[in-house]
Amino acid sequence: MTAREVLQIVQARGGVIVRQRGSHVRVQAGKCFATVPDHGLHDVPPGTLRSIERQLEPCLGKGWLRS
Length: 67
Hints:
Elements: H1 3-12, E1 16-21, E2 24-29, E3 32-37, H2 46-60
């Protein structure tokens, strides 16, 4: 899954892009924050995806990235 796909899912669920610094995009959903590395067409590593999902889970609900 690419960073752009992750960002689209976050935005579809009500999250917003707060800022971007270089290739790292900071997103916010409610009171939850996460940083998504955007390295073009490269996939986000699985461990990083799990971390992003855990960070935003309290605000977006369990399993928000997979559904």
